[in-house]
Amino acid sequence: MMKNYAFNSKPRVMLIYTGGTIGMIQNHTTGAFEAFNFDHLRANVPELNRFDYAIQAYQFDPPIDSSDMSPEVWKKLVKIINYNYDNYDGFVILHGTDTMAYTASALSFMLENLSKPVVLTGSQLPIGMLRTDGKENLITAVEIAAARDEEGQPMVPEVCVYFQQRLFRGNRTTKFSADNFNAFRSNNFPPLGHAGVDITYATELIRHPDRMLPLKPHFLLDTHVLAITLFPGLEEQLVRHLFAKELVKGLILRTFGSGNAPQHTWLANALKEATDAGKVIVNITQCQTGCVEMGRYETGRQLLDAGVVSGHNMTIEAAITKLMFLLGHYDDPRKVRYMMGQSLAGELDRK
Asked: Boundaries of CATH 3.40.50.1170 in the chain?
């Protein structure tokens, strides 16, 4: 854990390297890509020396592959940010791309009253490769983390994802490409900023906290959740088997269109039995854009009648992490159902 430091008036940015492709550099002897030591960050990314910033790095040892990301790592990130919160003006988290949207979503709920930028970024190619996208992503993320408005306040006091010239609200992002440099999209919410010749911000979209309230870190998460994607031919016995599991407290149901499901009597009955047993079932659409409106068609109303709650236009990443967060904080499933429909960190729009 980082210690307290005394700084001058330069913007102060903390880099947290969890792992992932961005932190790789090629061993010219073996040809293999290896995680480089962030103590030598400026040597590997000399462009950072042109910033008149105080930049300090913290490196996870060993680095964590994106596929191995877990709620325990999210808690560690919250602890690091909370411990160093007063010493820095902004934070940049270097992260593998595969689960970056999950981490960004989770942190948006776990860092209540956040008033400083927390910018996640990464890359599709290792930072040691000639054509890497990692350098631009890192350099711009650092600049965003340090950016201030005319009153000296942070430009983007949110958990964000910066990737390939676009800044997104973290809990609105999803990874859509394994091959392209523009790997992330925010299908239901516009970007918070664009990086071209200048970095421009959509100031009207950025959330601003009550600065009278201190940062409130949260560490309670209940991971007894499942996500089920509906598809033609889904078997009754399999669904009932999953719903009957006592360990399962919450379910994300990925439905068709605007929140529709097959009109099978057994499915409606199974959902009703599960909600009556105290399980929280949240309806989100499989579509890339759009919002769940269960009252729109009969195929959606049966879910509403069964006690399923709308996830509105949340991403799967936001819905899962939000459900973990709420189940960790509330014992009453009725409270969890109500809070799933409320915007906690700008993660949804209601219709």
From this structure: 12-217
**pTM as predicted:** 0.93
Report the candidate in 345, 294, 351, 293 with the shortest Cα–Cα distance to residue 319.
345
Which two tokens mark 197? 């010749």
- SS3 call for 273: helix
Task: Check pLDDT > 50 for residue 6.
Answer: no
Q: How would CATH label the architecture of 225-340?
A: 3-Layer(aba) Sandwich (3.40)
Give the mean pLDDT of the chain.
Answer: 90
Closest CA to 229 of 166, 127, 319: 319
What is the token pair recorded at 24? 């790789």
How far apart are alpha carbons 238 and 246 in whole angstroms? 15
Q: How far apart are CA 227 and CA 323, in angstroms?
A: 11
Q: Which of 21, 103, 173, 255 is catalytic?
A: 21
For residue range 270-287, list pLDDT tens digits in order. 999 999 999 999 999 999
CATH fit for domain 12-217, picks 3.40.50.10170, 1.10.533.10, 3.40.50.1170, 2.170.150.40: 3.40.50.1170
Q: Give the DSSP letter of residue 342.
A: S
Mean pLDDT of the 18-41 span? 74
Strand order of the sheet with strand 12-17? 54-59, 12-17, 90-94, 118-121, 159-163, 166-169, 193-195, 199-201
In the chain, CATH 3.40.50.40 covers 225-340
Region of poorest pLDDT, from 18-22, 28-32, 61-65, 317-321:
28-32
DSSP E strands in 153-278: the ranges are: 159-163, 166-169, 174-175, 184-185, 193-195, 199-201, 216-217, 225-229, 250-255
Determine whether 21 is an active site residue: yes
Q: Is 13 exposed, middle or buried (0-12, 13-18, 19+ CB in 10 A)?
A: buried
